[in-house]
Here is the input.
Amino acid sequence: MSDEKISVTLEQREVFGKAVRGLRREGMVPAVVHNHGKESLHVQAPAVQLQKIYNTAGKHHPVDLTVGGKKYLALIKDADFEPKKQTLRHIVFNAIRQDEKTTAEIPVVLTGEIPAEKASLIVLRHLEQVEVEALPRDLVDQLEVDATSLAENGDKIQVSDITVPSGVTILTDPETTIATVEIPRDQVAEANAAAVEQAEADGKADEVPADNGGEASDATEEKTE
Here is the structure.
């Protein structure tokens, strides 16, 4: 886990339901802290502050919360964004314990030079993150997977190819595809056009002698007549 400590102070929230729209207009974001099966805490904080926390912590880095003078260690479990402007509208924290394993979503990063990209092929990402289980101290900011094997059309890498650090268990199906190599559509179109053109050329080449022969015979017959 990164040594960076991420912390935020949250205020108790007394506004619920449709009334939270007023909070958002005031630049605040409503949030909830699920507290180990106890009654959830309804809280709020400035939108700018919570957006920064989300951008830094994602769903994998523990966050130190302070609510009403009490301290909580938590992970962000869900974040809701306004569809058009992509502004943060709501956030959910899950309180965790240092001595208990928890689940988190860890970003997956491709490492190494990718031969397919040098060959002007497309590398399609199918999976950006995986779900893991680990103690909070063992959570990492990212997981790496060697992408140097992506060289030709059809090549792929899977979750099973990820380098897994000690103390971390990946819960995502190991056969899930992370990335694949494909030929760009314009190259496919060009190849198809070239194939059609060649096929047409081959067809004409076969027909020309017969046609020429037929035209010659017709001409000879006309002269004979």
The two ends are 97 Å apart (CA to CA).
